[in-house]
Design brief:
alpha+beta, Beta Polymerase, domain 2, five-stranded mixed sheet, 12 helices, 16% strand, globular
Length: 253
């Protein structure tokens, strides 16, 4: 599949006259808890020729390519990515940490990741992850059961919020470092669930064991209360502007 993905990305570059600077796997494969029926969520960052950015007409800032049920490709213009980084959006933070990389141009990922460290806003990140966890809980539970895919949405998001709150750094993308925040007995339960998910379809229903359910409720309340007391922050766009100008000039077609 990797060969097919790289081929598709090359076709996209040619068809849309763009340069893909970075492409990775997002979703459960990137989070390192895939199911056998997990699709491939390919995400990429691209730049256009310099003249496109100097036009009075706006070019699209994203490209979507839902190829089939197994492969979903989506890309964002570098300008869109940098705007989101200024808002401390978690999506670019996660993409740049993906363990599965399909394309990487020069030191683009490394340089952009260093820049991201200046734009981490703890309150925004904690609240974002808590919102995902709450949404998964509210829509995923039925008669005490939850789809295993939804449970991991809850766990990864909740632990990411906990990481941001307690460590005051960008949360890791993958699940393993996140579960180290849990008590030892719960870490073992989650690792067993990861193994179960690796052999079960994403719609597989399970019951959340009481101790894990109690932990989720406790940590959600703890993180929600902690987020309320976090100070507001704002960021200058100067470093992002410098990075943007350097990037589009370097990769001008």
């Amino acid at each position: 599949m990797k060969t097919e993905i790289i081929r598709k990305l090359g076709e996209i570059e040619c068809a849309h006259n763009i340069k893909i600077l970075f492409a990775c796997e997002s979703g459960s494969r990137g989070w390192e808890f895939p199911s056998p029926d997990s699709d491939y969520d390919v995400r990429f960052i691209y730049t256009r020729p310099l003249d496109d950015y100097l036009s009075v007409s706006d070019s699209p800032d994203h490209l979507d390519f839902p190829i089939n049920n197994e492969l979903d490709i989506n890309g964002w213009d570098i300008k869109k990515v940098l705007k989101l980084i200024r808002k401390s959006n978690t999506t670019p933070f996660e993409w740049l940490q993906s363990p599965i990389i399909y394309m990487e141009h020069d030191h683009f990922k490394e340089d952009l990741w260093k820049l991201c460290q200046q734009y981490f806003y703890r309150k925004t990140n904690v609240n974002h992850y808590l919102g995902i966890a709450l949404g998964a809980l509210e829509t995923g539970t039925n008669a005490g059961e939850i789809k295993i895919k939804k449970l991991f949405y809850v766990l990864r998001s909740l632990l990411s919020a906990k990481w941001c709150l307690e460590k005051n750094t960008i949360a890791p993308m993958t699940i393993e470092p996140l579960i180290t925040l849990m008590p030892e007995n719960l870490m073992e339960i989650v690792r067993e669930l990861i193994l179960l998910k690796s052999t079960s379809n994403e719609g597989f229903l399970i019951k959340i064991v009481p101790q894990l359910s109690a932990y989720i409720d406790h940590e959600f309340e703890k993180c929600s209360v902690g987020a309320k007391d976090l100070p507001k922050e704002s960021f200058s766009g100067e470093a992002l502007d410098i990075f943007f100008r350097k990037t589009i000039k370097s990769y001008d077609n």
